[in-house]
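hey team, just a heads up i'm posting the complex here instead of the shared drive bc the drive is being weird again. everything in one block, sequence lines first with there labels, then the predicted structure for the whole assembly after. its two chains so it's a bit long, scroll down
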Amino acid sequence: MGASQSTESNLTASIQRHLSKIVVAPSFAASLFFVYGFILWTGYMAFSKSRMLPSWDWAGLRQYERLWQMERWHVAIENLLVFGGLFIVTCLIIGCLLAVLLDQRIRAEGALRTIFLYPMALSFIVTGTVWKWLLNPGLGLESMMHDLGWTSFKFDWLVNSDMAIYTVVIAAVWQASGFVMAMFLAALRGVDQDIIRAAYMDGASLPRIYFGIIIPSIRPVFLSAIVVLAHLAVKSFDLVIALTGGGPGYSSDLPATFMYTMAFQRNQLGVGAASAMMMLATVMAIIVPYLYSELRGGKKNG
Amino acid sequence: MYLRKTILATGVAFSALATASFAHAEPTAEVLHWWTSGGEAKAVASLKEDFEANGGTWVDSPVAGGAGDAAMTVLRSRVLSGDAPAAVQLKGPAIQEWAEEGALADLNDVAAAEGWDDVIPAAIQDVMKYEGDYVAVPVNVHRVDWIWANPALLAKVGADSAPTTWDEFNALADKLQAAGITPVAHGGQPWQDATVFETVVLGLGGPEFFQKALIDLDEDALKSDTMKAVFDQMRKIRGYVDADFPGRDWNLATAMVMNGEAAMQIMGDWAKGEFLAAGKVPGKDFICAATPSEHGYLFNVDSFAMFNVSGDDKVAGQKLLAELIVGEKFQETFNLLKGSIPARSGVSLDKFDDCAKKSEADLEAAQEAGGFLPSMAHGMALRGHLAGAIVDVVTAHFNSDMSSDEAVSRLVEAVELAKD
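-- predicted structure starts here --
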């Protein structure tokens, strides 16, 4: 009797001890297989001779060589640098500015916050389609200005090969800067008010307080925002498809749309896989140093 | 022991019964396609009715999206898991690619019984056959090299018909432009740029050059002066389109011609469907004319490839389907709905419109003159990666200020890279 009771309580105790692991196990197994398993599979495909169907024949680095010889891939990579750079920087500036302005204990803050955050609730397809109409010279902004009498107004970036990628930046910034604002606002509210009051006492001006005290103290939020925005930039696909369709020509192609074209439209699974691995490498280059610094920081604090 | 024997015997009897019932089961065919809207959906429904009227069971597998990209992804996974649909909407060299994988079924017995060799044009037979065996069946012939023109706008500059040479085309376009009319309605999407490009190749180089450059990918033809002249002409056409053309869908460009906003569009005969749907009459409200060429005709043939299936009912269904598709009745109903012309001879064209009749007459003339050629822009002439490499260069040239010399050298490079 006593023995069985103790086994029972042992069992309960051990279940309780491992409960969190047991609950997490299925999703852990699923992501192990469906995420990391398929990353390995794609990695192998990039070294294979695959064209229409996956094949196991080894091709060495040939697919990567072909990838880097393609003019279109170079366009996609340049676009990623332009788009990613401008998107991240502009979102940070606008998001931070909005957060600081909202932080001034103004009236109707709740309503404004919601308005700024709303674009994030839309899908990129919707954003892309709406901006496509707005930016189309024959339909949107330009034609409206002409109708209003400002006939010399010209804004034809959407149909201009050299500028099309910047329209993607505009639409993406519109969508994501509200989210960045929310991140900053949360961080600003978390800053110790005593320090700010102390700075006031010492006669520091408001800009001085922001640049000297508050912004440095929310530095980790910058890092998180950059990581979130960078991976949004690398994987952006639907926005480009809806807004420019990769065009004019293929001038606004990004690596993700390039990969889709090769793998699903042109029976070039090998090249598609190679470009996917290059995208993964780009994301890793951003995430790994971040994780490293985070984990090291954690140890220091602990 | 006795009991066991009884059970065994019953089991055998049941399974025999089951097999027997399978042998007599209705012919069944699963059809994977992406004709899900408008006239195309109606056209597929007509095939389904026909198939069911002949005692078949139709299993519909429509996969919409991405102009067939989604369906091809489904097809890949179905074939890899050993469960291929009986018939798949598939066209051009993609048929050969699947046949090379050993995935396609042999239709030679149906072909012999129905005499396909005599009724299907030889150039289309080449697409449907793999190593001499029929593996696919054609449903229609779309012509790609058409000019759709608005006669009222042409009349404003004193023209009463579409141009017959590219010089005439340029002269007419210049006049239209001087009169303040947009000469060419065009949608700036890579495949539309490529459509215009291949009609220019056919017109300026002739059928033989088209064959060498865009089918055989002969390097001398690709870097020839003729090819440079083709890119020069593309640059000219770029000057004839309106400023907002990038990204525009083809049917919106057709609407521009219809509504008098632009004079001409170079597009395949699916554009005709837009005119007819709006109640326009060929010859009166719109003109259909071939783009300038010497008896050239670029075809875009939709087809169904037949995949290996197991089970008597499925094989029977597949053969019945193939027979019906090439049959005169289906070819007539389907093509009336789709706006194309039958892919076989012997179908009366009485119910078809004038443009379709012209298409059929030109087809016969082109066959005799050796100008009946597969379209590159619509995936009939080259495998996806090769056509894609050419389209990339064409669209990059059309949408920038690249020189013809540079376009030609990029074309040669891109084709070389895609070949290996």
